Amino acid sequence: MSETMSGTTAGTAAVTATGGSGDSGTRADRPRALRGFGFGTIGAVYVWLAMIGLFALWIPDLWLDRATVTTLMSDYSVTALAALSLVVVLSARLFDLSIGSTMSLGGVVAGHLLATTTLPPTLCALGGVLAGALVGLANAVAVVWLRLESLIATLGTGAIVAAMAVALSGDKVLTERMSGDFNLIAIGEIAGINVAFLYVIALMFAMGLVLEQTAAGRRLYATGYNTEAARLMGVRVNRVKVVAFMVSGALAGFAGVILAARLQAGAPDAGAHYLIPAFSAAFLGATQFRHGRFNPWGAVLAVLVIGTGSLGLSLAGGPAWAPDVFSGLILIVAVAITVAERGPRRAGAA
Amino acid sequence: MSDVRLRLSGVSKTFPAQRALSGVDLEVRAGEVHALVGENGSGKSTLIKVLSGFHRPDPGSRVEVDGVGLDPGNPAGSLAAGLRFVHQDLGLVDELGAAENVGLTAGFAGKLGRIAWRAHRERVRHLMARVGVEVDIDRPAGRLAAVERSAVAIARALDDTHGVPKVLVLDEPTAALPPAEVDRLMQVIADLRERGVSIIYVSHRLGEVLGIADRLTVLRDGRSFGTYDTEGMDEAALAELIVGRPVAEIGRRAHLRPVPDAASPVLTVADLTTDLLRRVDLSVHEGEVLGIAGIAGSGREELASALAGALPAQLRLTMAGAPSETAVSVRQARGRGIALVLPNSHPAAAVGEQTVAENIGLARPAAVVRRGWISRRRERDVAREWIERLDVAPSDPDRAYSLLSGGNKQKVALARGLIGAPKVLVLDDPTSGVDIGARQSIYRLVRDLAATGTPSIVCSADLDDLVGMADRVLVLVDGQVVDELVGDAVTEAGLLAAMARRRSVPDAALAQMGGQR
């Protein structure tokens, strides 16, 4: 690096201290516009494109088909909704291990309402979402008022919620009134695009706006990074946590409803399968776009990566367990990248 | 006498985006205390990390101990060559006693993995005796007095399991020490020098440097600016060497206000009681800077947070033109216009992972929100205004707060306090880890604020802060106000005398209280 560069950066403190010699102290990085396309920022996009290319060469007949795109969009919309639900709580540095159970409960509650009442399907779906929000409230009670670690608290609530889903369904798969209108909530199409996928896109934009462009979003991130500092700046951190848990729970309930609607079945264990992919996506997503910050864009991109890999592996005749191995690996690699990114920065900062 | 123990020649270190050290030369003699001084960012930390092997310096850098070159950038090599380090945070495990803390780094005596506790404890006692501070080696480090913790860390560094210790590097060893314990540490250092240990002493505190060091080397912008004998040097001369230009003397200012009109306080607090404070009364008036002095454990460290609602406290708080309250939450205090600025080293001073702009914006969302949405441009513009006003470097609103140096962090923390146009600014240790240049601008800022009428309350362990800023100082001992110094009576000597007064509890108990904080 040039001598002038060292003058601006190495001597920054000296410059301030001596009263600032008009040195702007700009970043030595590339221009802001270019930085957005670096591997460090959107590496997953390149990985995703590479996978698409790989499968296109490996299994061209099966892969290069409209059905692949449709399957990807509809199958992984549920995973994406679950991942977006996690983005909310993880931004506040809270873990929610109960989302799998909450999804199951959401589907079962909707199924139960369909079977036992004459309410229209949309209201039954709303019931599932509300059930999720209540689970979120229970999580908040355990974490905010009883002061449990969120990891432990949600492990506990998750077990209870899973049991409630089994109890409510009578340990059966609920299918009554699930075809028809309720089914359309998940598989309908607008302009030829699957509605579940549209929910994901709409939610991604909405969450992105709230997290990045409102004071509420700033408070959420600040609470997650440094609760005490946020509190001292007048942020009502407990309220932030309660809202985060409830929004996250409602979204998990919604994901469960969409899952049940798509499968035309409310199964008491349906959500459990989504826990790990959702965490993988949320963590991988945090390495994208915003450098370590949980964000909806990254989470959705990460679901596409996980979905493409899993779908490709199964289309290529891989064993049934291959997708699970894939999402487990993604989780570990994603967190490793985050840690590696932070490491040298710390050293540089010292 | 003048044998060179440690010689650095042409040591450079280049990071991807910056050159932190360029051709630093340094000679430390056997049995001398050699101070390393310079502003934040001058390269002191990097130099220490090169010595400890944490950073590998650029090719061509030479480090010799007793004439033998060592492979820099290799921690084991540094250790074997006899270079030892006591970092500012000491690196002790608070839950463990000295015996185990020493064992964790130096290894435990014993065979086949089984610890021979008797032999090990004997060794640790021997080490503590070398340092010359008596400590219960089983008492958890977190419950020792600050100076005892330092002694344990020094003892650990002096362990000779991995080679004879030759050079001991002390990085800001007094930063966490109450004034009363600094002298004990200085005695420890002087004793070690007598035993032939060379000491590199890194500190921002000029008085200490001149008091303990035989010679000193000044670093400026990553270069060694020169090595000087401390004999005959005064603080002003040293400050000028460090900053590179004449520095207005730190001390009393001529323009202090007369004793304010006691009839119209902006803020009055009565019966303030916390864990450490006992029924403290105070008031601060328009245009006044009120200082709060006290050793660790006196309650001085709780007063700022208690006033701002950050710490549970009982009090009667009255602000001009408002009814009094018996307790305040953070939000109530902020609503009343009490702004708390924590020391930059405090974990809750700001959100490290967020940018400067986000941190400033969070302190006053109304300044950056337009119709419910945060305007990124507005947020950056507001941050730039403050960056310019407080002279923060680098002047990049998008930089993560955690990447700033201590002085610049402190300025951002101040901006967070000032942006809400507070009625009273409450500062807690505003210059810890802050270099002399930034320190002066903080003093000026607080004085200027007072000149516009807004009073400040400055709680500080650093007497320079009080002498440099305060019109009036309340001195706390054992949680109570024992003295009030006004105007010209606010001197370092006067403060020290008042702080040491009326110890109703034995020293040991006082020291213990200090250790718990």
Write a structural description:
- The complex is a heterodimer of chains A (350) and B (517).
- Chain A is mostly helical and 350 residues long.
- Chain A has a single domain (66-341), classed as ABC transporter involved in vitamin B12 uptake, BtuC (Orthogonal Bundle), CATH 1.10.3470.
- In chain A, 74% of the residues lie in helices and 1% in strands.
- Chain A is built from 17 helices and 2 strands.
- In chain A, strands 1-2 form a two-stranded antiparallel ribbon.
- Chain A is globular, with a radius of gyration of 22 Å.
- Chain B has 517 residues and is an alpha/beta fold.
- Chain B has 3 domains: 1-82 and 163-247, P-loop containing nucleotide triphosphate hydrolases (Rossmann fold), CATH 3.40.50.300; 94-162; 252-337 and 470-517, 3-Layer(aba) Sandwich (Rossmann fold), CATH 3.40.50.
- In chain B, 34% of the residues lie in helices and 24% in strands.
- In chain B, the strands form 6 sheets. Chain B has a 6-stranded mixed beta sheet with strand order 6-9-10-3-11-12, with helices on both faces. In chain B, strands 17-20-21-15-22-23 form a 6-stranded mixed beta sheet, sandwiched between helices.
- In chain B, strand 11 (215-220) and strand 12 form a beta hairpin.
- In chain B, helix 3 (98-106) runs parallel beside helix 5 (146-158), helix 4 (117-131) packs across helix 5 (146-158) and helix 11 runs parallel beside helix 13 (406-418).
- Mean pLDDT of chain B is 86; it is low at 503-517.
- Classes of the chains: A mainly alpha (350), B alpha/beta (517).
- The interface between A and B is large, with 53 and 68 residues.
What distinguishing features does this structure have?
heterodimer, A: 350 residues, mainly alpha, ABC transporter involved in vitamin B12 uptake, BtuC, two-stranded antiparallel sheet, 74% helix, 1% strand, globular, disordered N terminus, disordered C terminus, B: 517 residues, alpha/beta, Rossmann fold, 3 domains, six-stranded mixed beta sheet, 23 strands, 34% helix
